[in-house]
Amino acid sequence: MNGCRKYEDLLARYIHGQVLLQEVEDLEGHLAMCAACEKLYREIADIDRVLREMPDKSVEPPAHLRSKIVANLQEEERTPAWRPWGKWAAAIGAAAACLLAGVVLYRGAVTKESRVAPLPSAAPPAAQSPQETAPGASAKAPAARPPLSSATAPAPSPHAVELRIVREVKIYFYHPAASKVAVTGDFNGWNPEGVLLTASGEPGVWKTTLRLHPGAYSYIFIVDGNLLVPDPNAPDQMPDGYGGTNSILLVKGGNSV
Amino acid sequence: MAFDDDSRLARRAQKGDRQAFEALLDRYERPIYSFIYHFFQDRALCEDLTQETFLRAYRFIGSFRPGEKMSTWLYSIAKNLCIDELRRRKKGTAVDIDAVDPDLLVAEGRDGGNPLVAAIDQEQGEILRKLLLRVPEKYRMSIILFYFNELSYEEISAIMEISLSNTKILLFRGKRMLVELYRKETGGKV
């Protein structure tokens, strides 16, 4: 059988009906010569027939299962167990910053720009000035505050120092079929690579954390490198000007989110 | 067309219409239940995982994309839950769904061994069903989706997130493992 390995792929395609004519000749020639492969081929063909003709392929679920599932759905509607977004987010949610997102506290959130990790690229609208309100959004302009820990902050120069709030925004996206998910938007200058999401541990759920200044951001998910998917659960959506849709992520200022 | 109906139902479900989701449940409860049942062959577990599949689908219906196939999406959720369950059972041991028992891939020619007889009888089917449980999960899933759920290669490749040609290889190797297991089980006889 050692010399027969190269025929494995061929045999697989042969059984599943996808071989070229010259490959058929090659394989059939080999099967005529090699008793072991010929036997394997016949046995696999037999297994194939047994599996095809197997009884009880479709198994009837017990009658009570449907009502259990429906009860789960009703319960889920009353108390969504794990849905930080969607219509509930919209309801609760001027509070939430978004999307699939829980906005999490970045203690020491108010700090000097020089101490803030730089954003991926283009500054978001609200970053221009703490007093500026993001366009088209209900984002509150963050109030300038003194650093929480003045001990660690260098002495401020009244002209150079701009106080910024940075919030960590957790992004979740459910897509069980994706092998790669990224998020891009005006927070990173619509970088085509985007910011990669990683597997969250929940099956099919992808996540990442963005550090953003308060403001409103347009964003979209990139699935498997080429498919643009707006967040279907974001409370706000807007046309992208090219016939598609972007989702809007609102990062609020202030201390409570 | 069922596909259009699914999309329409999904759109309604995305807007919070639970009746529409229940219509999808009626359509897919049995195939999803069958898939999970053949995978574990444990009715209680199968009930739990079927419930969980539809609960998750309901929770995440918002991420169902227009143009996507509802069956593919639901099977993907069920597949992930099955793999998750296997991980839980193995407690902290990562499940390598590519792992293959090397013994199962060594198909030696054995003199004197009878080829499997094509005659289908209940007993032979039952033996195969049991042996299927010993086939590594990725191969087992493909076999179940192809032979029991009777899905196309294309749909299986979408669910398993592999190429079409790898889907065929997976099916072939799965059957080859079954042949080897069958030989061991029956001492090379039918």
Would you summarize the structure shown here?
The complex is a heterodimer of chains A (257) and B (190). Chain A has 257 residues and is α+β, with helices and mostly antiparallel strands.
Describe this structure in words.
The complex is a heterodimer of chains A (257) and B (190). Chain A is an alpha+beta fold and 257 residues long. Chain A folds into two domains: 2-52; 90-251, Sandwich (Immunoglobulin-like). Chain A is built from five helices and twelve strands. The radius of gyration of chain A is 28 Å and the shape is elongated. The N and C termini of chain A lie far apart (67 Å). Chain B has helices at 2-14, 18-40, 43-59, 70-89, 102-105, 122-132, 137-148, 153-160, 164-186. Chain B is elongated. Chain B is built from nine helices and no strands. Chain B folds into two domains: 2-89, Orthogonal Bundle (Rna Polymerase Sigma Factor, Chain: A), CATH 1.10.1740.10; 102-186, Winged helix-like DNA-binding domain superfamily/Winged helix DNA-binding domain (Arc Repressor Mutant, subunit A), CATH 1.10.10.10. In chain B, helix 1 (2-14) packs across helix 2 (18-40), helix 2 packs across helix 4 and helix 7 crosses helix 9. Chain B has 190 residues and is mainly alpha-helical. The interface between A and B is large, with 62 and 74 residues.
